[in-house]
């Protein structure tokens, strides 16, 4: 039996599971959780190799989906809704393929059910590895090491949320080595058998993760699907325009 994912439950009502993306943790969709917990039971998870969940040298969508379904069984959920961002969106789609009888609704934030062929995180991995090798003794020092590799302050701050003091130095909660070795698995995707779960794709208007050319592949895998574009946002749409994203999510959930 595999280990149980680390998770947090807030609120009461129909269960909604929130799934973060690559290099994230269960706090990443916190802006959504804080709003939705007023009307729903919100379950935020740390995926394997992230946050305070277990680490593994394997990191495939099938395994991540099985991890989540094991948690659903442990919590004895009869039905539930999934909201996933980026890599978490792919995990949500894979769960839907396996457990579609229980998944009431699926909401995917800025991710397509396709294999991506372009490496997007080389500078991030270089920064993460530099922190591992330099063993900084303060958070400030760790962020300075990151700054040699990652220009955008917002990206450094996001990654910094997964730094912790291991005793004599600061290091990462996520499993850098496994994520690096499995990176092409994370970019990859095996198309699923078409599901009829009510599905909403929310796209950041300025992001290239979900584009018009993906429409055919989306419709081949999801027969009951809608899409909504949040203008003037990138891949981190839920952080950039949380109130707009929440409005679209709540309308879909109704």
TrEMBL record:
Keywords: Hydrolase, Kinase, Transferase. Coiled coil: none annotated. Residues 15-242 form the AB hydrolase-1 domain. One of its GO terms (molecular function) is kinase activity. Gene3D superfamilies: alpha/beta hydrolase. This is Histidine kinase. It comes from Vibrio variabilis.
């Amino acid at each position: 039996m595999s280990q149980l994912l680390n998770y947090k439950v807030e609120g009461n009502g129909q269960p909604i599971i929130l799934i973060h993306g690559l290099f994230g943790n269960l706090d990443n969709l916190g802006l959504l959780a804080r709003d939705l917990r007023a009307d729903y039971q919100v379950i935020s998870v740390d995926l394997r190799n992230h946050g305070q969940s277990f680490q593994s040298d394997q990191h495939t969508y099938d395994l991540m989906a099985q991890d989540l379904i094991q948690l659903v069984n442990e919590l004895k959920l009869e039905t539930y809704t999934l909201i996933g961002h980026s890599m978490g969106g792919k995990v949500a789609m894979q769960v839907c393929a396996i457990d579609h009888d229980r998944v009431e609704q699926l909401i995917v934030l800025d991710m397509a059910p396709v294999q991506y062929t372009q490496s997007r995180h080389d500078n991030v991995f270089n920064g993460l590895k530099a922190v591992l090798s330099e063993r900084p003794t303060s958070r400030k020092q760790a962020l300075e090491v990151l700054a040699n590799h990652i220009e955008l302050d917002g990206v450094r701050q996001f990654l910094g949320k997964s730094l912790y003091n291991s005793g004599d130095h600061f290091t990462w909660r996520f499993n850098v080595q496994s994520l690096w070795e499995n990176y092409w698995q994370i970019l990859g995707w095996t198309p699923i058998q078409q599901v009829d779960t009510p599905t909403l794709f929310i796209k950041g208007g300025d992001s290239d993760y979900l584009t018009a050319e993906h429409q055919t592949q989306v419709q081949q895998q999801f027969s009951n699907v809608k899409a909504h574009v949040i203008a003037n946002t990138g891949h981190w749409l839920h952080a950039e325009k949380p109130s707009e994203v929440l409005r679209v999510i709540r309308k879909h959930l109704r």
